[in-house]
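re: the backbone from monday

yeah here it is again, tokenized this time
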């Protein structure tokens, strides 16, 4: 499968910190890729590496199947941190000024402003916009030059519920109407979960897991957590009896995402196999629980 963004062992080391630790990321065309992690996990640094704002310490980046990054980066638009706007200028005037750098004519500017819901703000100055409106104007600027991918760093951070909905609706509209692919970082899981098609979970600079949204939804429906005296022996026994397919484990327990409706049988099987069962709990885990398991509190 060809990815439009792919990294191999992407690493960035600063004098006092390993910020990005051998990250292998895969973004397909049409994805809304939710890059999830706590503040300081390495999300922004990874995005800056992809955009060429900083150089990697090691590893590779491939864009649209090519290693010619300078050429391919022309297909990327971005909003990293807060948009740098001319506060005394209108939305149109801001767009006109940035179009000198990124391209775009009056017709395109008006189309983009309408697309992000800023086509009717008239002569209002950007300095008087709400935070949500400023974020949407930042996204509009990033759309100049008709990029195929938008990289957005915490686009809903600090917004009120109405502002969050504005940005969320804008992203979905661009994805559906223009087939724009998104790489979006956030630590606000509940909001991102409403639009994401695939997640990349990052912790302490490492990409812990990539998982499709529909698979995550399945995993979060029901599970059976078993705390046992010997995890490796229990896994072998359950697999031998065709009871273990999708699961997670640590040194003390196994979380099963199949056959969770057979706790009595599983308990009996493990005990007969000489494995002490210390705890057996069936539950419905939510998105938040799933992510906390992987990145901690």
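seq for it, each position gets an aa:
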């Amino acid at each position: 499968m060809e990815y439009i963004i792919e990294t191999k062992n992407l690493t960035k080391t600063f004098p006092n910190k390993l910020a990005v630790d051998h990250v292998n990321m895969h973004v397909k065309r049409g994805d809304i890729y939710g890059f999830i992690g706590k503040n300081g996990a390495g999300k922004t640094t990874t995005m800056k590496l992809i955009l060429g704002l900083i150089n990697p310490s090691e590893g590779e980046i491939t864009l649209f199947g090519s290693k010619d990054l300078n050429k391919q980066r022309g297909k990327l638009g971005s909003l990293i941190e807060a948009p740098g706007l001319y506060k005394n200028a209108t939305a149109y005037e801001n767009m006109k000024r940035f179009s000198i750098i990124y391209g775009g004519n009056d017709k395109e500017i008006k189309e983009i402003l309408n697309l992000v819901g800023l086509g009717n703000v008239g002569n209002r100055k950007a300095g008087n916009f709400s935070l949500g409106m400023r974020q949407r104007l930042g996204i509009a600027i990033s759309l100049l030059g008709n990029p195929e991918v938008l990289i957005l760093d915490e686009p809903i951070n600090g917004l009120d519920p109405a502002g969050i909905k504005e940005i969320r609706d804008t992203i979905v509209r661009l994805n559906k109407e223009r087939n724009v692919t998104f790489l979006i970082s956030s630590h606000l899981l509940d909001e991102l979960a409403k639009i994401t098609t695939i997640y990349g979970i990052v912790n302490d600079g490492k990409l812990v897991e990539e998982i499709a949204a529909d698979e995550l939804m399945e995993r979060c429906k029901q599970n059976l957590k078993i705390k046992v005296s010997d995890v490796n022996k229990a896994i072998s026994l359950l697999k031998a009896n065709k009871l273990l397919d999708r699961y997670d484990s640590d040194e003390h327990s196994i979380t099963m995402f199949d056959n969770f409706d057979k706790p009595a049988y599983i308990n009996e099987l493990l005990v007969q196999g000489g494995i002490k069962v210390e705890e057996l709990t069936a539950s419905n885990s939510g998105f938040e629980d799933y992510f906390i398991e992987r990145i901690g509190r």
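The chain has two domains: 5-216, 220-295. Residues 220-295 form a domain with the Alpha-Beta Plaits fold (CATH 3.30.70.980).
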